[in-house]
Here is the input.
Amino acid sequence: MKPSDIAHTAALEIDHVSHRYGARLALNDVSFTVRQSSFTVLLGLNGAGKSTLFSLITRLYAIRSGQIRIFGHDVANEPGAALSKLGVVFQSRALDTDISVRQNLMYHAALHGIANRRANELIAEVLDRVAMTDRSLDRVGNLSIGQMRRIEIARALLHRPRLLVLDEPTVGLDIKARADILDHVRRLSTVEGIGVLWATHLIDEAGAGDNVVVLHKGRVLARGGLGEVVGQSGGADLRDAFNRLTGAADQDELESAR
Amino acid sequence: MTVAGEAIARHSFSLTQYFICLKGIVWREALRFIHQRERFVSALVRPLVWLFIFAAGFRQVLGVSIIPPYETYILYEVYIAPGLIAMIQLFNGMQSSLTMVYDRETGGMRTLLVSPFPRWWLLLSKLLAGTLVSILQAYAFLLIAWFWDIEAPPLGYLTLLPALLLSGLMLGALGMLISSLIKQLENFAGVMNFVIFPMFFASSALYPLWRVKESSLLLYYVCELNPFTHATELIRFALYEQVSWVSLSVVFCCTLAFLFGAIVAYDPARGFLARRNTPGG
Here is the structure.
């Protein structure tokens, strides 16, 4: 791929991806795209398949059906190129609580092959960005959950990825910390042009300008701008639209089972 | 866009970057080790219990005749010291691999595997990091043993180093392989019963093999085939500035085989993650 192409390439393309756990189909022909500079909310209840999709995007599991591309690089065939453009905030706690904020970030820099001097610059930059510069020498275990989340976001951004994926990043946060983080990540997409995929089960985390993908029991029920998704479903707002869509899907399932 | 340009340029790594990655993984393991003092203490207490209590009690029962690499009659404590060093490495290998499995769904493992470096390099680095920690433990043990009058020739402490590196890699790779293949062994008690104890007891760690041969020929062959015997012998000879070529070859080949197995097992397409993944997390 030529550098000039990159501006036209989608940050993340999920292309007809299916995944099974034994007999259970966890993802069923899932397709959607996260454009650059866009904020896409992947909305689904627990068990909808969000975490499975994250495991496939991050190459923890092999993609057996379909394709996932990050800036045009197939995750299965060119994992190095794909993963170097990806920043991830996992749902489970992924920081070492025994060591300091700085040491955690240095470790991450090493995992991306970034030498010390450059790592120091980048760490200063990302800590400043999440307003945590003064905590850099603190043990991670001494931080609040909201602060840890900020550090995890800082870490995900350290190697300057162009795509950021976050799996339920606001779990366990109070209302203010939640709003802060949501606001911060939104700004990353609008100001810095990073493509963001934000997976959540909290409907009110989707905002007016966002793209929305509704995932339910492994299937994409709707995707598009928030307005479009609401309009197509005939609902009054996103919550209503979500209930209608998932309700109709469950109804279909019941009927086909009969 | 310069940032995007930088991202494109970075997906093939230089040798220096591979080294940075390795250094980072080793450094983190060392930091964790320093911060988890209980782990260090328990890793040290285990062999010391064997040395101070078991060996002291058994020294009257078991006589050890002069066998290579020893040139004089030795106390039983002196005989079992190399086996206890190998035991330190065995525990360390199993423990760090099991942590990997527990970490599989949680952040630690994911953080590692989402790195854009090839997975074999990440696993090898992780293995090397665990081995270096086990080497620190082994030398700490030898230091205490030295005060207990278990003294090797001064140069032996140096010639021991490459032996420890190789045996540590072998046992670490074995742990990685086992943890990925056998689901039932996911708790440490299972590993103790089915891996650590059989490997440790059916080896030359506690008694010279000629004694085993006297009581059971079958057991003798089992011991001979046990890679742990060869790790122990490699360490024993190295501590006395000698090389056991048979053990060296066995340990070397086993290291390669286990390592290869572990890398395949952690391959997302072929390994256990693909076969066994559960919808957790």
About this structure: Chain A touches chain B through 54 residues (CB under 8 Å).
